[in-house]
Amino acid sequence: MTDTHTRVALVTGGTGGIGLAVTNRLAQDGYAVAVHYAGNKAKADEAVAAIEAQGG
């Protein structure tokens, strides 16, 4: 039987510091990651691009 469940994580403050490290690690571990940010869209876009570049 195939596992059809996708692990999902929402990381608040996921665009810098510890939050960014957490999003990167979760993406590496196969999670679908949603990145929340408060005001810097460019930084959020960079975080998402980095996750996508790793296959996330």
Description:
Strand 1, helix 1 (17-28) and strand 2 form a beta-alpha-beta unit. The mean pLDDT is 86. The protein has 2 helices and 2 strands; from the N terminus they run E-H-E-H. The N and C termini lie far apart (24 Å). The radius of gyration is 12 Å and the shape is elongated. A two-stranded parallel ribbon has the order 1-2. The protein has helices at residues 17-28, 41-53, and strands at 8-12, 32-36. With 56 residues, it is of the alpha+beta class. Helices cover 45% and strands 18% of the residues.
- Reading the helices and strands in chain order gives EHEH
What is the CA-atom radius of gyration, in angstroms? 12 Å
3D shape: elongated
Number of strands: 2
N→C terminal distance: 24 Å
Major β-sheet annotation: 2 strands, parallel
DSSP helical segment count: 2
Instruction: Give the overall pLDDT as a whole number.
Output: 86
Strands side by side in the biggest sheet: 1-2
Helical residues, percent: 40-55%
Unreliable stretches (pLDDT < 50, length at least 5) are: none
Strand fraction equals 15-25%
> What structural class do helix, strand and pairing data support?
alpha+beta
